[in-house]
Amino acid sequence: MSAPTILNISGVNKRFGGLQALSEVNVKILKGQIYGLIGPNGAGKTTFFNVITGLYQADTGSFELAGKPYSPSAPHEVAKAGIARTFQNIRLFGEMTVLENVMVGCHVRTHQGVFGAVFRHKAARTEELAIRKRSQELLDFVGIGRFGERTARHLSYGDQRRLEIARALATEPQLLALDEPAAGMNATEKLALRELLVKIKNEGKTILLIEHDVKLMMGLCDRLTVLDYGKPIAEGLPAEIQKNPAVIEAYLGGGH
Ligand SMILES: Nc1ncnc2c1ncn2[C@@H]1O[C@H](COP(=O)(O)OP(=O)(O)OP(=O)(O)O)[C@@H](O)[C@H]1O
């Protein structure tokens, strides 16, 4: 029996004025996969992320998350529905501690929410302790457990990326959507990131990944979709994608 479908999206179109940023995009991601989205600059990758996480509204498209119809809406609702994302430009609470950043992520799934935590009702205190413990476990999992009390903005670049991933995992997502997590990383940091993503996959999580480093993607992804000028030009296994003439043309041809 094949794995259940986590994300099933079809017929997505998105236009900005005269520009067709997404054109009939279909993506189907199975549980436990690392699914890659690649394409030259401006191909529509981030727009696709923005559409599935409710930052942009698609002109058309049908969306299913873990077998249920899903309508991308406000970011908090999207997190509750089960999609957690990171951004090309790191978005942390820079003045909060590393641990607190992850705790914020955990509150998506709590009963008391952030207000309960602030006013310190008794039930909230108990929940808060559990959240602290869970957050520390997540920091340990991504490899920055020793920095919990540091101010987030004092972490190294690579560790800030890990923290973003820990915070996203804290929302207990069905799908972890990572937008260029290796951007700006050196070779050692990239290698460590790769190991972390494999570790997350081995926990049974499902990952949707945008990344410019094609070599990294080919080694990491179970399947990929290639976008070019908003259109899907190929879908398949890394070995199929690598020898697809349309993909080679999109990357090496004169259009970009
Ligand atoms: N809010 C917007 N308004 C108008 N045009 C936009 C908007 N967002 C994106 N675009 C345009 O849509 C196209 C796709 O952009 P997008 O950022 O999704 O590409 P990308 O594949 O993520 O590129 P990169 O790899 O450079 O991040 C581009 O031509 C971009 O200029």
UniProtKB/TrEMBL annotation:
Any Gene Ontology CC annotation: plasma membrane
Residues that span the membrane, as ranges: none
Stretches assigned to coiled coil: none
Record's keyword terms, sorted: ATP-binding, Cell membrane, Membrane, Nucleotide-binding, Transport
Protein origin, superkingdom: Bacteria
GO MF: ATP binding; ATP hydrolysis activity; L-isoleucine transmembrane transporter activity; L-phenylalanine transmembrane transporter activity; L-valine transmembrane transporter activity
ABC transporter domain residues: 7-254
Alphabetical GO biological process terms: D-alanine transmembrane transport; L-alanine transport; L-isoleucine import across plasma membrane; L-valine import across plasma membrane
Signal peptide: none
Name recorded for this polypeptide: ABC transporter family protein
Organism whose genome encodes this protein: Collimonas pratensis
Lineage: Bacteria, Pseudomonadati, Pseudomonadota, Betaproteobacteria, Burkholderiales
